[in-house]
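Annual report, structural modelling task.

Input specification for the oxa(dethia)-CoA complex:
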Amino acid sequence: MKLRSQVAGCGAYLPERILTNRELAERLDTSDEWIRQRTGIGERRVAASGELTSDLAFRAAERALSTAGMSGSDLDLLVLATATPDNTFPATAAKVQARLGMTGGAAFDVQAVCAGFIFALAVADNALRLGQARSALVIGAETFSRILDWHDRSTCVLFGDGAGALVLKAVSPTTRGGRYILSNHLHSDGRQYDILYVDGGPSSTCSSGLLRMEGREVFRQAVQHLSDVVDEALRANELTGADIDWLVPHQANSRIIDSIGRRLGLPPEKIVMTIERHANTSAASIPLALELAVSDGRIKAGDLVLMEALGGGLSWGASLVRW
Ligand code: UT7
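The model returned the following structure:
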């Protein structure tokens, strides 16, 4: 029997501590005005000492499961997107699996940095379509505050911590009004490895390293690749920008998001923008934005939602979902 993945629940979690642009400007040669104008960021959240990626992921997962009316024991797949795992191994997903009381199925991490949520969603969607699992939890969770060089104003002002999660259930495409993931589109270009990377890791140094980025070049490539991948997603489904109810983009820079919105011909009201409050939370940014727009009543059952993201690798992708 043909199966598809329907969204059954959505949840998010942000650490309590808010770090504003003004606070950063007290420590660094930067200003609230520069950060807002160049990125759209006003503030970000920072995990408390001892608060780990798995803690953020667990809280987002609990909320997503509760909106789906499910518990951990109902799941048979957990895919966690993160570039900031608790430990080098095992997967942070394993810790979250145990805390959720999920004793069957598989739990593993996916690493595509800021594109991680789209990659994890595609992996889970493929498993559900193939009948390898009947329900899946897809989490994006990050503590980028731990891998920032707090002396480098060109990167440390850009990122924040957070987590978001979606519950997926396998459904027959002939029922329930076609509400399921329509398609996922993934790409990578490893030749661009060193324009956005962390200068450490278990096989290269004895430290976990700090984030390094050629911002202007990443920006240029992001606009190009994201424009191409949203076109690809629309073409694959014989749709146009006019069919999209909501663009839920990765939140790296409001200028990148605006340019993709213009490309699609979307008015700003149809774009879910959270960057002002969360900054760039890497793999967590799309599910955080989804949770906000679902809980405030913007995204409703049956809406067509387009998600897109680009991150280190470079890796990028898009997903189209009939919510
Ligand atoms: O999520 C993963 C993907 N990541 C992205 O998509 C990020 C893509 N890149 C960007 O969003 C932007 O390139 C940045 C926000 C990182 C930088 O904006 P920009 O408009 O590309 O600025 P720039 O790097 O060209 O720098 C312009 C100036 C420089 O000074 P000079 O050389 O013109 O004197 C920088 O030194 O702004 C300076 N600058 C700052 N000034 C105040 C850089 N960072 C700061 C800062 N505060 N925090």
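The two ends are 22 Å apart (CA to CA).
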